[in-house]
Amino acid sequence: MTSRWHKALAALLALCMTAGIAGCSGGESSETDTTDTAQTAQTDETSETESEEVKVGYIFHGDAKTDGVSGEMNAQRILAGTHSSVETMYIDNVSITDFEKAVQTLANAGCSYIVSESPVYKNVLSSTAGKYMNINFIAYGTNVRSANIAAYTEEIFQGAYVAGMVAAYNSESEKIGVVADTDLLYPIPVINAAALGMQLVYSDAEVVAAFATADDEIETAVNALKNDGCDVIICYTESRRAAQLCEEKGIKFIDSVDHGSDYSDYGNMLMYFGCGRSSYYLSHYKKMTMDTWEGDTFTGTMANGTVTVSDALPAAKDGTQDIIGALVPKVTGGLAYIFNGELKDINGSVKYLKGDYMSAAEIYNMDWYVYGVRLLGNYRQPVTDLTENSFEIQYD
Fold first, then answer.
1. What residues contact 344, with CB distance under 8 A and at least 6 apart?
2. 20 to 30 A Cα–Cα from 111, which one of 16, 55, 234, 239?
3. What is the spatial distance between Cα 14 and Cα 20, in angstroms, rounded to a whole number?
4. pTM (predicted TM-score)
5. What radius of gyration, in Å, describes the C-alpha atoms of the chain?
6. What is the DSSP string of 140-174?
7. Which of 103, 147, 106 is closest to 125 using CA atoms?
8. Separation between Cα atoms, residue 235 and residue 209, nearest integer Å
9. Which residues contact residue 362 at a Cβ distance below 8 angstroms, ignoring those fewer than 6 apart?
10. In 27-156, which residue ranges form alpha helices assigned H by DSSP?
């Protein structure tokens, strides 16, 4: 590491150790009464039968058999199912307009619980749930509950805050790209948090944002970010095509899905952040089998272990793990308030004064960008494929 980075790291670690980080964010007898044995067996059999009657259907917006976000969520569904007798099934590639049809298909298959696995369904879900009061819903991407809706959201922007800091530390151009999918959860807070994390390293660092969803759109966005001078890209997309392109083009990048052991497939990945949901699913399965389920509200954060951040990977500069190790405990412990203090928009106008704190609702509904963000372009194209989904229920 050059003396420049020694000095930057020393200053950064000093910052994270001060109060100013709030701006960072034996065995019994074998004899047994036969009556008791029969009663116990009958109870167990009854319990097992009741458990088998619980069916949970998942609705995915993307392809559940790919390695994208929907695929990750589906893997977490499978993992939770291995620890429960609840039967789960799913329908994937469901558009917003076909959401109610998917609900009806799963209800006809005997599902009394349905998990809505995309924030794009947020608006249509409330009206649909009102028509199916005999179905209980778990709604991903909303914090509004009702009698038959359990609201579940994640503060994924906490991971983006750490990612922004790591991206800046590993950048030479001090210009970081973010390719974001507007169908994912909180794309604007994710971009803003990344920018604020970057500014812990370089006060004048620039985040260049591009929006894309389909693989061809993502390719256009990544090329545009590279041509604009971005030497590190944060990938926040449903598809893993952004990560693949960065690897192919030799661009350092940070991904937003939990790669586990497959990170070794990517020699240019600096770190990754993501969310684990299997424990959340399992807790609801338990309530379902015990017939104690009710609509509630849950927010996944770094503090409760839902939002996760990896260690620095081999591609990262020396010292990267030190700054991750300094910042993550602050975020986890609630000492890094990401959206607080004076915040300016991209035009330099003050949106929040020093000492102000944004509420969760204000963060979730951000429709403006913080100072230091530049919008490169929206590469999303109008959807022209209106092919009707076959709505084939799948179990694997």
1. 350, 351, 370, 371
2. 239
3. 10
4. 0.86
5. 23
6. ET----BTTEEEEEE-THHHHHHHHHHHHHT-SSS
7. 103
8. 10
9. 339
10. 34-52, 69-81, 99-108, 122-131
240 residue type, one letter:
R
Which residues have C-beta within 8 Å of that of residue 277, sequence separation ≥ 6? 73, 76, 80, 300, 306
β-bridge pairing 206-211 and 373-378:
parallel
Give the C-alpha separation, 306 to 277, whole Å: 7
CA distance 230 to 324: 22
Is the pLDDT reported for residue 11 higher than 70? Answer: no
Six token digits for residue 395: 């179990």
Count the neighbouring beta carbons within 10 Å of the beta carbon of residue 126.
15
- What the chain holds in terms of domains, given with CATH numbers, is 52-154 (3.40.50.2300), 157-273+309-378 (3.40.50.2300)
Please answer whether residues 167 and 270 qualify as being in contact, where contact means their C-beta atoms are separated by less than 8 angstroms. Answer: yes
Question: Rounded to the nearest 5°, which phi and psi values hold at 246?
Answer: -60, -40
Mean pLDDT value across residues 238-246: 94
> For 301-339, how does the pLDDT look when each residue is reduced to its tens digit (9 = 90+)?
999 999 999 999 999 999 999 999 999 999 999 888 899
Distance set, CA 364 to CA 16, 132, 185, 265 (Å): 26, 27, 9, 33
The answer to whether 175 and 228 are in contact (CB under 8 A) is yes
Amino acid of residue 279: S
Q: Note the residue count of the chain.
A: 396
Which of 11, 37, 81, 98 shows the shortest CA–CA distance to 391? 98
pLDDT of residue 9: 55
* Residue type at 92 in one-letter notation: D
Written as six digits, the tokens of 206 are 């620039």
Closest CA to 117 of 89, 139, 102, 135: 139
Going by C-alpha positions, the residue among 380, 364, 305, 379 that lies closest to residue 151 is 364
CA distance 223 to 210: 10
Our CA dihedral for 28, 31, 34, 38, rounded to 10 degrees, sits at 30
With CA atoms as reference, report the closest residue to 195 among 21, 344, 313, 352: 344
Interacting residues of 320 by C-beta distance below 8 A, sequence separation 6+ = 166, 169, 170, 270, 271, 312
Q: List pLDDT tens digits, range 203-217.
A: 888 999 999 999 999
